[in-house]
Amino acid sequence: MNSGKRLLRWASGIMFVLGTGHLLLLALVAWQDLTGWVDRGIWAAVPLELTDGGAAETVESLRNEVTFWAGTGSFAVPLILLGCLTWHLAGRGVAVPSWIGWSLVLWCAVGGVLLVPSPFFAGTVAGALVIRAARKEDREPRPSLPDRCPATRQTES
Question: Which residue has the higher pLDDT, 112 or 57?
Fold first, then answer.
């Protein structure tokens, strides 16, 4: 296994564990809120209630919204998907662009500073691994591909 592939596999593992861990932790902490969604009907998990400006939100509605935005509405699901995509691309030998790594580093660094202590900073490691793998890919010489188009092949006389 080449080092770029190994770096991407580690990065994808970190992303997958962070996203999955986030959702599992939410399930443990807010289990009653999540089961309440099933009781009320999943389509009404976070109902759209337009207030006329003077009505205050209830504690229950605020907990419901926090549970949604900390779970399904959070970046945990896209982070899991990004981790799976990175794993898949690494397996196929396709380089992940460095801008993905830089974006992940920036997002996780800002999130880590705003929400201390948190595992957000582990996401910066995943982003740095993606950046390093992209740089290794840029430095390695690419093998030339054989000409596969029959119209451009030279025929020997």
Answer: 112
